[in-house]
Amino acid sequence: MKLDVLFADWATTRAQNRWLFLAIAALSLTLLLETSLLLGRDRVVVLVPPELSAETEIASDRAGQDYTKAWGLHIATLIGNVTPGNGAFIKQAVYPLLAPAIHDEVTTIIERQLDQLERDRVSLRFEPRRVLQKGRRVFVFGYGVTSAIGGANEARVKRTYEIELEIERHRPVIRAMRTYEGEPRPDEPTRPPAIGEGE
């Protein structure tokens, strides 16, 4: 056996082990850095729901304008189409979307409006025509139609549903909401909930 060849190969093996150890340490540090960056990064979800014509992004605290407009339209359509028979369903559908600060007030307003509709034996229908957004506020403009049960004696008025939406943990939350006759008023400051205002 040639000892000089053995020691030369042994020295080469030790040098290679040192380089491999350094490479493994560098890869481990890179992996830890990437993992910490990925864990700290906000997750963005890309959706294309049926109501939207293009992709929209939703993060834990923000969403694309198309997404918030679609939610505003959904809420306005839900609240704007009330009959004595579907009041409990509407309350149940809207309640989880309300911010805790306005739960009680909005629920009271909806119940009062439902009692009035039952007493007057009328129903409300909303025909949306336009949706616009300014900041967190979504304005859904259309025609509010009040009619007696059975569809007789319809009264049509221009109506706007103004909904202030925020995204919290990927879900929409209604911070404020009001309804009024006429065109949207995006330059007015937000006011507290007033669902039946102007009726």
Structure description:
- With 199 residues, the protein is α+β, with helices and mostly antiparallel strands.
- Helices cover 40% and strands 28% of the residues.
- The strands form two sheets. Strands 3-4-5-6 form a four-stranded antiparallel β-sheet, with helices on one face.
- A hairpin with an 8-residue loop joins strand 1 (45-47) and strand 2 (56-58).
- The longest helix has 38 residues, at 3-40.
- The radius of gyration is 30 Å and the shape is rod-shaped.
- The model has no long low-confidence stretch (mean pLDDT 80).
Q: What descriptive keywords fit this protein?
A:
199 residues, alpha+beta, four-stranded antiparallel β-sheet, two-stranded antiparallel ribbon, 4 helices, 6 strands, 28% strand
